[in-house]
């Protein structure tokens, strides 16, 4: 992959997201925005124990994948696949509670499903993020950024 700051890299990521999101019933523009928020499109991003494009923690990885976290998390395509598997599982769990919305999916990804459940699946009880893109996702704009052309 080209340097994450380049248009070419963002195009590669966008091209990979579209079919993966469709297969999992996810909005591809939501996933693209989440990648921007989580890693700035940097497949080598690391914050604490979070790794890769979707900043996946080992526990979250193991919940949806049998692949090795240590090697797979750094493969940007695998990171997208496993991260979207986690998003799809969370979307299903929210739907089973009668609470699915993209703001709640964002909140569950950011804070954890249990945190969102403990707050009654009520976005007014979820802290407002300071990052402008996260704020738009929190507020219900599931397409806060445009994909590369």
SSE topology:
Blueprint: H1 7-24, H2 28-39, E1 46-47, E2 50-51, H3 58-64, H4 69-72, H5 76-96, H6 102-111, H7 113-118, H8 132-139
Antiparallel strand pairs: 1-2
Give a quick precis of the structure.
With 149 residues, the protein is an all-alpha fold. Helix content is 58%, strand content 3%.
Summarize the structure in words.
The chain has 149 residues and is an all-alpha fold. It has a single domain (7-139), classed as Lysozyme (Orthogonal Bundle). It is 58% helix and 3% strand. The protein is built from eight helices and two strands. The protein has a two-stranded antiparallel ribbon. Strand 1 (46-47) and strand 2 (50-51) form a beta hairpin. Helix 1 (7-24) packs across helix 2 (28-39), helix 1 (7-24) packs parallel to helix 5 (76-96) and helix 3 crosses helix 5 (76-96). The protein is globular and about 40 Å long.
What labels describe this entry?
single chain, 149 residues, mainly alpha, Lysozyme, 3% strand, globular
Q: Any idea of the CATH topology?
A: Lysozyme
CATH architecture: Orthogonal Bundle
The strand order across the widest sheet is: 1-2
Apparent shape = globular
Distance between the termini: 17 Å
The CATH C-level class name: Mainly Alpha
Largest sheet: 2 strands, antiparallel
Total separate domains: 1
Overall average pLDDT: 95
Structural class from helices and strands? mainly alpha
| Rg, Cα atoms, Å | 14 Å
Q: Write down the secondary-structure element order.
A: HHEEHHHHHH
Portion in helices: 55-70%
Query: What is the overall number of helices?
Result: 8
Query: How many DSSP-defined strands?
Result: 2
């Amino acid at each position: 992959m080209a340097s994450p700051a380049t248009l070419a890299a963002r195009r590669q990521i966008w091209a990979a997201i579209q079919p993966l999101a469709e297969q999992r019933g996810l909005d591809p523009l939501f996933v693209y925005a989440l990648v921007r928020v989580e890693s700035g499109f940097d497949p080598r991003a690391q914050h604490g124990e979070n790794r890769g494009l979707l900043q996946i923690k080992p526990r979250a990885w193991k919940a949806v994948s049998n692949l090795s976290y240590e090697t797979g998390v750094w493969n940007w395509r695998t990171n997208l696949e496993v991260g979207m598997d986690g998003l799809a599982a969370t979307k299903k769990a929210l739907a089973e509670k009668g609470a699915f919305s993209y703001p709640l999916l964002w909140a569950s990804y950011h804070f954890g499903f249990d945190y969102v459940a403990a707050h009654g699946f009520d976005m007014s009880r979820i802290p407002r993020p300071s990052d402008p893109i996260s704020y738009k996702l929190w507020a219900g704009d599931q397409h806060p950024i445009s994909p590369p052309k």
